[in-house]
Design a protein that fits this description.
heterodimer, A: alpha+beta, Alpha-Beta Plaits, disordered N terminus, B: alpha/beta, Rossmann fold, six-stranded parallel sheet, Thiamin_PyroP_enz_cen_dom (chain B)
Chain lengths: 102, 554
């Protein structure tokens, strides 16, 4: 928790990305590799299949950065990515998970 | 109901996609596919001598035909050897489908013989890739691979097929439809109007054409746009040939080895119309100082290219053909006499210096002598290095797909196999491969393939017994301390060529080198044309890496 507070005081804006993707092996590699090879840090990742098992939803927690727009465009280009929605830091998905990381 | 093995299914799907030639090398994990290929008389297989060579042959075919072409490799070292050709296709947006064998499904992840994670390894190098786990999936995966390779911004797609999947029997009712490219993005008419207004209102516009113009088949439209709007036109390395070099509006290639006047014209521009180009660092130099006075219109089919390096005032996601077609009715006919006079003045004061042009044994003279002996129907491929830049600067390119070069990745070894691929796709054309002694040695084994296929490829070797561009940079920027750039022993390339079964001529000893060269170029079949050049001749002008384009040396 102290890490989170430090970053908040440093006024680093968090962004939550919601991705809908095709559900098959390798999709996570495509997405994580895209961030990793641009040295763009991903703070949190969450992935579960949707009710329609052919698709999954991926949640990414990243920090606002001047390269973020370009990152999102590159993610959208991936063949297995169906949509990308950008949320603000107020999104509850990672906050509600915090109990599991205490 | 049809029934066949996965290997046979791949083959039938390639046939349906119109594939007539494939290039590659067999090996354990892809033998079921090769066995099916051996019983097929519609697809010609070209046996490369190294998988990278096979990859570049497919690229050569694709660069000439504009369609996705196919290369093959086995698992492990076959796939790792192919990787450079795939990366090269990615950076130059060349449509290609690579099919690799993989160890059987049950052995994946066991460090099996010749196992490598081909899928993982090629994620960052391909437009998309597949690991096929069930032969039934091939019905979807193979057409998808072609659709992805040729849709939007083209690129390489890899399909990794385990050996047992190739052997698995598949039953199905009908073949899937033949893959076609995705529908083109809808053109944003408001942005088009804004762009046309900016072009009409500008006083010193420059049209900046990239390889996307060639991919879209829009060269003639780009020339029409330039003529209608009175737009001086520069081309990237990838776009050479889109506008004939002797067109009055052409200001040649921009960038690190562009002519001085070209970079000076860009410095003066008040509007830059970038079409199908991506502001590569070798083209624009220091991004912050490129076209400092210009507003920017950027047209690209890949939305991720807009605002990536330079923020555009108007960004248009679209196919170049459709965008120019929409622009043309809105762009006013302009003569732009003051601006074109200023451009002409810069061109006259700061032209490209081509010393010794009349001497076919000098670097520019050799390029000129080859051009003099051929017409515009010839295909000109290069390797990477000084010779590549001299050809880019001095060869009179006049049509799209006349010029094949490794632009983005800058791969030495590209030239010979790509020239072979070009000759496979266009056997009626003479194909010239300009190369250097450093580059040629990187895929020299493909001379065997060339001799076997007896293709009309002429290798023009500029031999300075060194890694010339490295030697040049060390001489210019590293205190004249050459390190590992000069070869200590010379290679007898004439004997090597003869050993591979090629005809070979030496301009060094020819009494009349221009005549010897012309004769060799006219004689059908493969030939090595050797010419020694001076190691102390450098490519000028040169923008130091990281500097602004106006800071040219030489």
């Amino acid at each position: 928790m102290s890490m989170v507070i430090e970053r908040e005081t440093a006024a680093v804006t968090k962004v939550v990305l919601e991705l809908e993707v095709a559900n098959h092996a390798g999709v996570m590699s495509h997405i994580c590799g895209l961030f990793a090879r641009r040295a763009f840090n991903v703070e949190g990742i969450l992935c579960m299949p949707l009710a329609d098992a052919s698709r999954s939803r991926i949640w990414l927690l990243v920090f606002e950065d001047e390269r973020l727009e370009q990152m999102i465009k590159q993610v959208e280009k991936l063949e297995d990515v169906i949509s990308v929605v950008r949320h603000g830091a107020e999104h509850a998905v990672f906050e509600r998970l915090e109990t599991f990381f205490r | 109901m049809m029934q066949m093995t996965g290997a046979e299914l791949i083959l039938r799907l390639l046939e349906r996609q119109g594939i007539e030639t494939v290039c590659g090398i067999p090996g354990g994990a892809i033998l079921p596919f090769y066995d099916a290929l051996g019983q097929c008389d519609t697809i010609h297989h070209v046996l490369a001598r190294h998988e990278q060579g096979g990859g570049f042959m497919a690229q050569g075919m694709a660069r000439v035909s504009g369609k996705p072409e196919v290369c093959l490799a086995s698992s492990g070292p076959g796939a790792t050897n192919l990787v450079t050709a795939i990366a090269d296709a990615k950076l130059d947006s060349i449509p290609m489908v690579a099919i690799t064998g993989q160890v059987p499904l049950g052995m994946i992840g066991t460090d099996a013989f010749q196992e490598v994670d081909t899928y993982g390894m090629t994620i960052p190098l391909t437009k998309h890739n597949f690991l096929v786990r069930d032969a039934n999936d091939l019905l979807e995966v193979i057409p998808e691979a072609f659709r992805i390779a040729m849709s939007g911004r083209p690129g390489p797609v890899l399909v990794d097929v385990p050996k047992d999947v190739q052997c698995q029997m598949v039953s199905f009712e009908d073949y899937p439809p033949v893959a076609v490219p995705n529908a083109l993005p809808e053109v944003d008419l408001l942005a088009i109007e804004k762009a046309a207004e900016m072009i009409n209102a500008s006083e010193r516009p420059v049209l900046y054409l990239g390889g996307g113009v060639i991919h879209s088949g829009a060269s003639h439209l780009a020339v029409t746009l330039a003529e209608q709007g009175g737009l001086p036109t520069t081309m990237t390395l990838m776009a050479l040939g889109t506008m004939p070099i002797d067109h009055p509006l052409s200001i040649g290639m921009l960038g690190m080895h562009g002519a001085r006047y070209t970079n000076y014209v860009l410095e003066e521009a008040d509007l830059l119309i970038c079409v199908g180009a991506r502001f590569d660092d070798r083209a624009i130099g220091k991004a912050a100082e490129f076209c400092p006075r210009a507003k920017i219109i950027h047209v690209d089919i890949d939305p991720a290219e807009l605002h990536k390096i330079k923020t555009a005032h108007v960004g248009i996601t679209g196919d170049v053909t459709q965008v120019i077609e929409a622009l043309l009715p809105l762009v006013q006919v302009k003569l732009r006499e003051p601006w074109l006079a200023q451009v002409a003045d810069l061109k006259q004061r700061f032209p490209l210096a081509k010393p010794d042009l009349d001497n076919p044994r000098s670097h520019y003279g050799l390029v000129q002598a080859v051009a003099d002996a051929l017409d515009d129907e010839a295909v000109i491929a290069t390797d990477v290095g000084q010779h590549q830049m001299w050809v880019a600067q001095a060869y009179p390119f006049r049509r799209p797909r006349q010029w094949l070069t490794s632009g983005g990745l800058g791969t030495m070894g590209f030239g010979l196999p790509t020239a072979i691929g070009a000759a496979l796709a266009a056997p009626e054309r003479t194909v010239v491969c300009f190369t250097g002694d450093g580059s040629l040695k990187m895929n020299i084994q493909e001379m065997a393939t060339l001799a076997e296929e007896a293709l009309n490829v002429k290798i023009v070797l500029m031999n300075n017994n060194s890694l010339g561009l490295v030697y040049q940079q060390q001489s210019m920027f590293y205190g004249k301390r050459p390190v590992a750039s000069k070869y200590k022993r010379a290679v007898n390339f004439l004997k090597i060529a003869e050993g591979f079964g090629l005809d070979a001529v030496d301009l060094d000893t020819a009494e009349n080198p221009a005549a010897t060269l012309a004769e060799a170029l006219q004689r059908p079949g493969p030939c090595l044309i050797h010419c020694s050049i001076d190691r102390e001749e450098f490519v000028y002008p040169m923008v130091p890496p990281g500097a602004a384009n106006t800071e040219m040396i030489g």
